[in-house]
Amino acid sequence: MNSVTVSSGTSLTANVTIGADASLGLHDVSVTTGSEQATEFVPGPLTVVSSAAALGGGPSIASISPTLGALGQTLDVAIVGQNTSFADGVSTASFSGSGITVQSTQVTDATHASAHIVIANDAGLGFRDVSVETGPEQATLRTGFQVLATPPEVCGNCTDDDGDGMVDYEDSDCCSAPASMTIKAFKFKVSKKGTPSPLTIGISVPMTGIDPTSSDVELQLSNGNGEAFCALLTHGGWSKKKKSFKFSDKTGAAGGLSIGVLNFKKKGAIANLVLTGKRIDLSRFTDPSYTATLRIGSQCATGSKRKGH
Ligand SMILES: [Ca+2]
Ligand SMILES: [Ca+2]
Q1: From residue 128, how far is each of 79, 82, 99, 146, 170 by CA, in Å?
Q2: What is the DSSP letter of 178?
């Protein structure tokens, strides 16, 4: 510690020299003012790294996934290192602050690890630093992980993860700027016995450059009763046929949608999509006014139509 310059009751600058033999890793910081002692509320806010790391050539964490977690969640966080030497049984991951417990750290290779974490119900909200220690090696990603009060919306799982009533691409968390689609045909029968019935939906969407053989398609239908239908038509089910794309699924994995055709008007700006399934049960949904949401790749669109029989 060389000098301390106080600029206000809550702010000071400490000039420190870090010795060549200082231990690498997180260090606690505290300030003593007479009888008052202020300590950090996240442990180890100062990280000492090797000089190579300080120059950018040392070990660091390039990315993690997911970057968000909610109170009470148990997650596997994938960690990608850069210039690291992760080793299974040696490397341990940690998250700054209190309330995130790393139950295990698994390493697949020198730059890939996975941390199995539990976020306590009373963990502090906000950003956390993520670190992996491998012997003396320390790799840290500043503010790489965020703790939220409620789970984030996960896009593409047909679940309203954050509980706001909007599923996947209906939710602005997944689709911040939906294009306005035109629903050209929308037909299904409500069986009196409540058995699955044919559904056909035809949609005209202003999407450009879309290719469902490389981008998954998700179709959602909702009405006043809630989410009626949500299906992921994975890119593997699509094939290119001249200027159009065809979808085929016989397994039922696409929510019962079995046939689809996607083609383009002349200049390719408007795509026409028709999807049909033979046995889809919408009988629980008595509100005849449906909103469709379609996602192809990163583009999304929404439109409404009253049911036609
Ligand atoms: Ca979701
Ligand atoms: Ca939601």
Answers
A1: 14, 19, 11, 6, 29
A2: -
* Per-residue tokens: 273: 């999509």
Q: How far is it, in rounded angstroms, from Cα 42 to Cα 129? A: 10
| Centre of ligand 2 from the C-alpha of residue 173, in Å | 7
pLDDT of residue 202: 92
Domain with CATH 2.60.40.10 in the chain: 56-148
CATH number assigned to the domain with residue range 168-306, chosen from the 4 options 1.10.10, 1.10.238, 3.10.450, 2.60.40: 2.60.40
Query: Looking at residues 109-117, what average pLDDT do you find?
Result: 98
CA 296 to ligand 2 center in whole angstroms: 19
CATH number for the domain whose boundaries are 56-148: 2.60.40.10
Tens of pLDDT along 267-306? 657 889 999 998 888 878 888 888 999 999 889 999 998 7
Q: How far is the CA of 159 from the centre of ligand 1 (A)?
A: 4
3-state helix, strand, coil in the chain (%, to 5): 5, 55, 45
Q: How much distance in Å is there from the Cα of 157 to the middle of ligand 1?
A: 5
For residue 190, give the amino acid letter.
V
